[in-house]
Amino acid sequence: MRMTQTSDLWWKNAVIYxxxxxTFFDADGDGVGDIAGLTERIDYLxxxxxxxxxxxxxxxxxxxxxxxDVTDYYGVDPRLGTHGxxxxxxxxxxxxxxxxxxxxxxxxxxxxxxxxxxxxTSTDNPYRDYYVWRSDPPPDTSDQVVFPDKExxxxxxDERTGEWxxxxxxxxxxxxxxxxxxVRDEIWKTIGFWLQLGLDGFRVxxxxxxxxxxxxxxxxxxxxxxxxxxxxMRAFLGRRHGDAILLGEVNLPHEEQLxxxxxxxxxxxxxxxxxxAMQKAYLSLAREDAGPLVEALTQRPAIPHDCQWxxxxxxxxxxxxxxxxxxxxxxVFAAFGPEERMQVYGRGLxxxxxxxxDGDPRRIRMAYSLLFSLPGTPTLYYGEELGMxxxxxxxxxxxxxxxxxxxxxxxxxxxxxxxxxLVGKVVDGGYGPQHxxxxxxxxxxxxxxxxxxxxxxxxxxxxxxxxxELTVLDQPRAHVLAHQLSWEGSTVVALHNFSAEPVTVPxxxxxxxxxxxxxxxxxxxxxxxxxxxxxxxxxxxxxxxxRVRRDGERRLV
Length: 557
Ligand code: NOJ
What we know:
By secondary structure, the protein is of the alpha/beta class. It has helices at residues 4-8, 35-40, 42-48, 83-95, 114-119, 181-196, 207-214, 226-240, 254-261, 275-287, 291-299, 326-336, 353-356, 361-373, 438-443, 448-460, 463-467; strands at 16-19, 52-55, 99-104, 133-134, 155-158, 163-166, 201-204, 245-248, 271-273, 308-312, 319-320, 343-344, 348-349, 377-381, 469-472, 480-487, 490-497, 503-508, 516-519, 525-527, 533-538, 543-549. Among the domains are: 114-166, Oligo-1,6-glucosidase, Domain 2 (Oligo-1,6-glucosidase, domain 2, Alpha-Beta Complex); 469-549, Immunoglobulin-like (Sandwich). The longest helix is centred in the middle third of the chain and has 16 residues, at 181-196.
């Protein structure tokens, strides 16, 4: 295998771990997680095998959208620490073999950002054109709002100047006017600044939203191809830091996502989350039928060589099911979030994986084994490695943003502050720290944490998964996904049983005579018949990863 490629295009088989500093670990005991706390816990992440940290926003903010509302792109939220702390964090992470990326939030600022404060003082203020305004009353845009529980239009009247400003998200998040060269200059400077401090790239928030404004002149006529802007951003990033990445949030059908990767081997985003495969995976889990996921995987278009899908099961937002049909979404709701208090915005669930899967360890492990075996780069959201649950009493998406559970001590070991001073309430009940915490699981060889660690390390040792060509294997069991990934003459076969019934899966593999299948997640070797036929037994909700060992091959496993 040409292994050197895997360190060159490092994002193609990284293990990404997303966390919010304020809920991770509180080093100074004020109730808010901080950068020094995360730095203290870097070894925990290194032990898990994480190779890339994704930091949720840590910039100064009035915190009306959990930091996705920024008042200074060059600053650090003083509750979390200082620029010095950021540099120490990045240095320490790098020493432990981890790259660090962070959210880049350029669709909008907070309405408390000094630019917007100035812009709204008069129509001829120099900052006016940093944002997008209209003077005539807007049409009905209620079908375009992202948060229908809070907004009914993407335009908000600004009383003082009598004009409306654009906000795709909350009204307190005015959209930046990226068509304005001065705004573009600020964005280049922001990117350059954080790269200079040591970041390895960005998770780019809300990409289609900010691109939709790029090519518009004030009369909303398209004057420029928005993708030219994304191409320029990529080129700028590459000039400043050769192997930094852009990981974009683009929740669109696969075919539409393609143009965000770009041409010429991929000249726009390096990576995008695969929202389609994620949503279809839940439909498959709900139906106990591999079909929907197979459809998503086989219809995934080929992407440029240097690009990659980021696969995931959960993130900090609702588990969005917006790309399913109404009936499909209703099926997933019925299976995993039947009560209204579990649902949000009519399109998603405010739950984590273990609670949705009724705490069944076989199903939870199968789901994560599936995640790590899919072609792409797996992305974990903090606490997933422990099987943390959610706090349904918390408003909306805050349900899954509770403090990290480190131990069974006070506040789950997150902070020494009194509980009423914590940034968020620690989960209580069956998923609380008494039952779910890192310290206990790290010591227990049979814990979910150790299972997850095995998945991480095995994924890293199987470049076929990040780099290989996918074949969904023909076999007669509808509730089983059998797929293989081949790269550089090496093949990994993975099987996942979506149902509770044990099953034997007959496969016919295209392999040379005298090959065998070597289990990667447990002990065992299975001979493959002369015509490539092999029967693979799976337990109920079972999973197996198997590498094809060709006769006489010199491999460790
Ligand atoms: C997407 C982020 O994931 C979400 O948390 C945020 O509310 C919106 N963008 C607006 O920034």
